[in-house]
């Protein structure tokens, strides 16, 4: 989106660190997010089944590389806050470094085995929250962050980051017009 290849940031990290830090600091202080950080170009990649069913396509979004660096900084800040304040249950495995879904499966199997060995019943309910990340109301998310003790400045930055977003979608060489995104976690971001 911003025309900057990730390799450029990697190769010139020493030279770009200070200017990027200034941009990120200014963005955080002013709660001002460049428009390029709020746009995504999505391509629909066919997975399986009938090509005439929209649900059989997976969106892959291109977003700003510089914006993703800022997103990682914000994500790391949020993770540190949640970990430091013990806001994650020890049963939370998704989206946390060092915890994989494979480890979660082993833990659950171990608990089930212990229960069965103790003569207890084991009931299991599987739920799939389809499109869960696509339907998160932005205002509710920001209120949740407040309830978890995330500071006002960070919440305001996130609120601004989520508002005014837009995307366009390309399928089979056809590109849609730009559409405003009013809910959900932005596709292609690290937050």
Automatic annotation (TrEMBL):
InterPro entries: DNA/RNA_pol_sf, RT_dom. Residues 26-191 form the Reverse transcriptase domain. It comes from the Eukaryota. This is Reverse transcriptase domain-containing protein.
């Amino acid at each position: 989106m911003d025309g900057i290849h990730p390799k450029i940031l990697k190769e010139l990290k020493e030279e770009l660190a200070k200017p990027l830090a200034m941009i990120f600091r200014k963005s955080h202080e002013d709660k001002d997010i460049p428009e390029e950080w709020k746009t995504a170009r999505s391509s629909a990649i066919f997975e399986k089944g009938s090509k005439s069913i929209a649900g059989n396509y997976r969106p892959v979004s291109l977003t700003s590389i510089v914006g993703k660096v800022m997103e990682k900084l914000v994500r790391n800040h949020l993770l540190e806050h949640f970990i430091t304040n013990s806001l994650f249950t020890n049963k939370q495995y998704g989206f946390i470094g060092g915890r994989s879904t494979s480890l979660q499966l082993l833990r659950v199997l171990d608990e089930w085995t212990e229960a069965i060995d103790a003569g207890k019943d084991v009931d299991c309910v599987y739920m799939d929250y389809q499109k869960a990340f696509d339907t998160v109301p932005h205002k509710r998310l920001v209120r949740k962050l407040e309830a978890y003790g995330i500071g006002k400045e960070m919440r305001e930055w996130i609120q601004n980051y989520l508002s005014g977003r837009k995307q366009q979608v390309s399928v089979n060489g056809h590109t849609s017009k730009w559409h405003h995104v009013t809910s959900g976690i932005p596709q292609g971001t690290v937050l």
